[in-house]
Specification:
There is one protein chain. This protein has 383 residues and is of the alpha+beta class. The chain contains 13 helices and 10 strands. The protein starts with 5 loop residues before the first strand and ends with a helix.
């Protein structure tokens, strides 16, 4: 998931991106449909027809996955949770929420929205397939019935699979909502739901290994080998995602119990807005080695200037442009009180894109909290 993803459009104001691994699974699904499923369901067609229908079916399957994620995203936006992007990749899709749900009810509704969309799509597709069998079209009716039945079954299976109670699947999020409501402990609920995700990942990978081993040994039909391999792959992915979630839960617990005052940089260095960029680079960025500085005028923080703000200006113009012209103007999101938790600070940095916040006490800047300072704090308190 770390490779670059390409933006292909927007829905609900959310960027839709395609990960390079999507093309691999798209080709695999098209190939398996064109060489296996479709020739058995619709005998007598040409190879080009099978490949064309397989490609259309594969695209519709991923549209179904996209609609599933948009179901999550729509409900999340109703709770004012920003969605950074939706990415289609090897195992389906993922919607990037930039904040945690505010309540167990919100978590439940956001989690259940995806399976509800999948079940609705499944019912719609199966209804169309049944209708095309009862009232066949003059030509191509059987093809519509086969594709409708395929899409219907896959969407129902997608909804059911996601309801398995293991984080990060939707069922695991539903479970987390229940544990959260019962114990009033969000991080504890996340950790327990992720533990079930670990167990399910191991179970799925073990079952896949048994199928693969049985196919190799001749106990099972050789065709089960590919199914076993995919189950092992998916199980390993879920295990890794659940493991990462447990680590994040521990990190969030540590940050929630730590105040900004404990982590902030107290040796605050500020710059005046009238300085040229050349002067700021030489006397501040180079001299101190910091990635950004609050801009202060008459004792008030009026903005923030960071390395990337300077880099956006051609070097030949540094002597002619001032800090005031390129700084990011101050906004309420730039400031945080020293008694706030570090979890609040990190969530704000993720939501706003700031990599540092000015710590304000009684209207005066008393420090700076940065992502690098948080990383260093966690490294020193690793145990």
């Amino acid at each position: 998931m770390n490779a670059r993803a390409w933006e292909i459009g927007r829905a609900l104001g959310i960027p839709i991106r395609v990960h390079p691994s999507w093309f691999l699974v798209f080709f695999f699904v098209t190939w398996s449909l064109a060489t296996g499923y479709l020739p058995e369901a619709l005998p007598g067609l040409s190879d080009s027809r099978y490949w064309g229908m397989g490609a259309v079916a594969a695209l519709l399957l991923f549209v179904s996955v996209l609609l599933h994620e948009l179901g999550h995203s729509y409900v999340a936006q109703r709770y004012r949770i920003p969605i950074g992007q939706i990415t289609l990749f090897l195992f389906g899709g993922v919607a990037q929420m930039r904040a945690e749900p505010p309540s167990p009810k919100a978590e439940f509704l956001i989690a259940i929205a995806g399976p509800v969309v999948s079940f609705a799509l499944g019912a719609f597709s199966l209804s169309l397939a049944a209708a095309s069998e009862w009232w066949p079209a003059p030509s191509g009716g059987q093809g519509f019935a086969v594709l409708g039945g395929l899409l219907g079954l896959v969407n129902v299976q997608l909804g059911l699979f996601n309801l398995i109670p293991g984080f990060p699947l939707d069922g695991g999020r539903v479970l987390r909502a229940g544990l959260w409501a019962w114990g009033h402990d969000f991080h504890g609920a996340t950790s327990r739901a992720a533990f079930l995700g670990l167990a399910f990942g191991l179970l799925l990978a073990g079952f896949g290994a048994a199928l693969l081993g049985g196919a190799i040994a001749g106990v099972f039909d050789p065709s089960t080998a590919s199914n076993g391999g995919w189950l092992m792959f998916i199980g390993a992915f879920l295990f890794g995602a659940a493991w990462s979630t447990r680590k994040q839960a521990a990190l969030r617990l540590a940050l929630s119990g730590t105040s900004v005052r404990d982590v902030m940089v107290r040796a605050l260095v500020t710059v005046p807005p009238q300085l040229s960029l050349q002067t700021v680079v030489e006397e501040f960025f180079v001299a101190y080695g910091y990635g950004g500085f609050p801009v202060v005028e008459e004792g008030q923080v009026v903005g923030l200037i960071a390395v990337e703000d300077v880099q956006a200006i051609a070097q030949g113009l540094w002597s002619w442009r001032t800090v005031r012209e390129v700084m990011r103007p101050a906004s309420p999101d730039l400031f945080i009180p020293p008694d706030a938790s570090m979890m609040q600070a990190m969530e704000r940095m993720v939501r706003t894109g700031y990599d540092r916040l000015v710590v304000l006490e009684a209207g005066h800047p008393v420090g700076l909290v940065t992502r690098s300072a948080v990383a260093q704090f966690l490294q020193l308190h690793k145990s």
